[in-house]
Amino acid sequence: MSARIIDGKAIASALKVEIKQEVENLKSSGIIPGLATLLIGENPASHIYVKSKHRACQEVGIASFDHVLPADSKLEDVIGTVNKLNADRTVHAILVQLPLPPQIDVDSVLNAISPWKDVDGFHPANLGRLFAAKDLSELSNDKRVVPIPCTPQGMLVMLQKCGVTIAGKKAVVVGRSMIVGKPMAALLLACHATVTIAHSKTKDLEGCCRGADILVAAIGKIHMIHSGMVQEGAVVLDVGINRQPDGKITGDVDFDSVKEKAGWITPVPGGVGPMTIVMLLKNTVLLANSFLKR
Ligand code: NDP
User: Would 29-116 and 150-273 be classified into the same CATH topology?
Assistant: First the structure.
């Protein structure tokens, strides 16, 4: 039987309508949610990503501020700009576009962003809270708001929208980056899945993946996950964005074969990608809201 497709594009566009309404509500309380982006250097892909983030902000009425620094900037220049944005009351959310030029220490920059304005959720205080959470409810309540990294959060929303039960399930996350794999594993754990994180040194990766009820591929290798690695009926979430020799974008999962075995599957493009950008908007609204309450 063929898997049901998780249409990230459709879920994302429905969410944008809800976010637009939340922005309107905030505006009636006198707050225009504001996202500032900081881009260092000339990486063409980064410029495209930042542009699309500003466009998405415009669509829902979020104010966006574009800051660009030259590729040869010093760490002090970058931290200086971050500090100005930390102090700017019109900015509720700060995004530093990664990767950074080699002379800039990424940890120093991410640590400099106020945890209250950390739209990507990469500040150690926010990542620490995510890993410490025993339950999802601990991440957003009257006492505390923790921005959850956008790509993992997007995948969680997809699972919820499809009515997938996470508690008690075996989840395998292939990839252990700080922006996708690790926070996704923490999030699934906070949803009470039994989680395995696999990586390039994992022995018997195929057997490990076959044990998964929920399989997340965040590797960056074209079609590495094939149908022999997937359990019948599993939910397969493909984070990979890989460019093929013909220029087309494809995922880490061999979609055509895996869809014959999986229960649910995300396509690439049109799956996890569109969700990531909408979660950026959602986190901006969340941080603007918490600003209102402070
Ligand atoms: P990284 O390169 O930081 O991490 C890749 C991970 O995959 C590493 O943990 C690595 O293991 C693991 N890995 C590599 N080769 C193998 C292998 N042969 N077997 C098992 N594990 C392996 O990538 P990111 O997490 O940043 O991104 C992953 C993919 O997701 C990329 O294609 C990226 O473009 C895409 N992406 C998509 C987003 C979206 O919105 N859809 C957002 C962010 C990323 P080890 O740690 O041992 O090296």
Answer: yes
3-state helix, strand, coil in the chain (%, to 5): 45, 15, 40
Contact of 158 with 6, CB cutoff 8 Å: yes
Residues paired with 171 in a beta bridge: 195, 214
State which of 199, 223, 229 you would mutate to test the pocket of ligand 1, scoring each by most atoms of that ligand within 8 A of its C-beta. Answer: 199
pLDDT of residue 61: 98
pLDDT of 23 > 80? The answer is yes
Ligand 1 geometric centre to CA of 88 (Å)? 34
Burial class of residue 76, CB neighbours in 10 A (0-12, 13-18, 19+): exposed
Cβ-proximal residues to 96 (8 Å cutoff; 6+ apart), any chain = 37, 38, 40, 78, 82, 109, 110, 113, 120
Q: Which CATH architecture does the domain made up of 29-116 adopt?
A: 3-Layer(aba) Sandwich (3.40)
Phi and psi angles of residue 180, each rounded to the nearest 5 degrees, phi first: -125, -65
**150-273: what CATH class?**
alpha beta
Residue nearest to atom 6 of ligand 1 (CA): 175
Ligand 1 centroid – CA 200 distance (Å): 10
In this prediction, residue 142 carries a pLDDT of: 72
**φ and ψ at residue 242, rounded to 5 degrees:** -125, 140
C-alpha triplet 279, 272, 222: angle, nearest 5°: 145
What is the pTM for the complete model shown?
A: 0.97
Q: How far apart are CA 111 and CA 290, in angstroms?
A: 20
Q: Which residue has the tokens 């996708």?
A: 180
Residue ranges of domains in the chain: 29-116, 150-273
Measured CA to CA, the distance from residue 90 to residue 284 in angstroms comes to: 12
